[in-house]
Amino acid sequence: MTQQDPSDGIEHLFADTVRDTMGSAVYGDWRSIHNADAVPLAFGFPYPESFPNEELAAATDSLLSSEPERALQYGGGDHADGLRDLVVDRARDRGIDCAAETVHVTNGATRAIDTVCRTFLEPGDEVVVEAPTFMGALGIFRNHGAAVTGVTVDEEGLDVDALADDLASRARCGAAQPKLVYTIPDFQNPTGVTMATDRRERLLDLAERYDFVVLEDDP
Predict the structure, then answer these.
(1) Higher pLDDT residue, 42 or 28?
(2) CA angle, corner 151, sides to 217 and 120, nearest 5?
(3) Same domain, 90 and 118
(4) Do 194 and 186 contact (CB within 8 A), yes or no?
(5) What is the value of pTM for the model shown?
(6) pLDDT band at 76 (very low <50, low <70, confident <90, very high)
(7) Deepest in the core among 85, 89, 118, 191, taking most CB within 10 A?
(8) Among 83, 102, 121, which residue terminates a domain?
(9) 150-159 pLDDT, tens per residue?
């Protein structure tokens, strides 16, 4: 049995995916930026004056009054169930046809991305991302042991032609295709560009032809 150096505590037990990221910038370093003129580009910040604080306080009070024994239980109560119906209605307004039983509510985009990874990825599976892309998503993919490949972004978003050429080349030589393609089509992080409609349609065609999942991040 190998004698461990007690000075490292339990770090020798860390998973390889954690060990590989130790010492790198962490999700949240923006909090240490104190220069008033600095504009951190790594994260998206909601406009503070857009927060509906009064409405949220009223909704919380109403919820705890109407479902005092269920509101904070695991799974919530009737209001929690109604949230899925609200998502379905809003999705329908955007031309997305879905049902409440297909909606999975999470506590943020990174949780949703992690859930998709748990569902589809095995260690070593490939994820194609926009280059550059959201740093938080890259960390999640690597935590799941995925191989990450970047495709360039121009003024109209993801270069779908370049992606199509790569996928066709893989098919010709019998190479494995990616399992996921991760895209931020609206106001892409960090470039701010929006993907053209014809590129979106072609990306869906490619997903059907080459059998991969499109993971859309739409904050």
Answers:
(1) 42
(2) 50
(3) no
(4) yes
(5) 0.81
(6) confident
(7) 191
(8) 102
(9) 999 999 999 9
